Amino acid sequence: MSQAAVTEQESGYRWMMAAICGLIMSTSFISLTAFGVAAPEIAKSMHVSLQTLTIYGVDSFSIGLFVAFFLGHGGIFDTRIKTGVLVAQALLIVPQLLIPVVTSLWLLMLFRFSQGLMIMMLALFSIQLSGWFKPSQRGISLGATLGAITLGGALGGILSGRLASLGWQTMYYITAGIMLFGALVYFIFARDSETLKKQMWASKDKPHDSAWTYKMTWIMGLVQIPLTWSLFSIGGFMPSYAYHLGYTQAQVGDVMFVWGIVGFFAAIIGSWLGDLWSRGKTTNKGILRARLNLMSLADLIMGIGALMILYLAPVSYAWLMISAVVVVFLMMLPPNYWATPGNIFPVATMGAGAFGMGAISNSTSAIGPIVSSAMVPTFGWSGVFWIMAVLSFIGIGINYWAANSELPIDQQSSEQPGLGKAAH
User: Fold this and answer.
1) pLDDT of 295-313, one tens digit each?
2) Would you tell me how many other CB atoms lie within 10 Å of the CB of residue 265?
3) CATH match of 7-407 with 3.40.50.300
């Protein structure tokens, strides 16, 4: 590793970069909660049922979450990280300003789809922070960023609830302003790692394989499928399930707030444990296996939590709260997952590999909510949560497969971010 890379990865600024990425993700995910809070009023203004609006709004957003990772494929943004973030924020904030004047359900779907595309920032921040943090710290660098998914939902729930009395249109404009604030902080203070940027630009001129030709791109895409299926299904449908059980609006709001806050800290805990388990490992394979072990633990907890929601949550409100807390420890998985591209792919394909992993794994962020919304009227809630439980245990087997597969980065002799030639 070059001295410049060592200097960057030991600078105090790296923690500011992690905090900035966490902030913009938190402000971005306020949009998800704002729609849920405003849905009844939006449905009235469009003269459609709340169920229709929710299905169309949630499903179109979820499809956007999937399509997002194709936007960066082919090296469009992997060497232009801030340009990618700018595009993602524009696709998020502009619709937030336009939705209050929309009268067409189809146009609303288009805007919600556009907002879902902002999730490509996960891959962008995974690449950006890998230049600032050494492999044993990449989990914690992403902890706040990934935890912001649920934290933004929790804070957005409180904020949107307080602003609802002003009218849903005003609430949307104010939350758009908050998102704009998060974006401004990022673009004023965020910087790319010069060392990583030079390596990535230099690698563009050298012949290299497509990330899609690597078996590990596909395997790692499968690794996160249980998480993406469960996270966005639970996040989108937990309130409906709680209402189905007979709990009040205030009780449901409290559950979702606790769910969001605990999810943030679960991501921090998971990232800290992943870094701890990978510390001292001197090979890319060793670091990857350590993080996959942590991901298997998260899968196990996720499966147990899904069954608790199904069988214990109906017993009492206390059990609903406990079940929600247990299942949200699934958030230990994402920081470790997105910390891995730098230990899997050569520099030339690290960006494309990260976007490829995201495209495959996020396919179920679209499919999961759609299947869940279709199953509930016909089969009830049992099938929804049993699918999550079964997928979580399948995920453990996929992690074992990934841990014993050959890594593309180990087939290259060029210097890689974090480990360098000595790792080979």
Assistant:
1) 999 999 999 999 999 999 9
2) 16
3) no
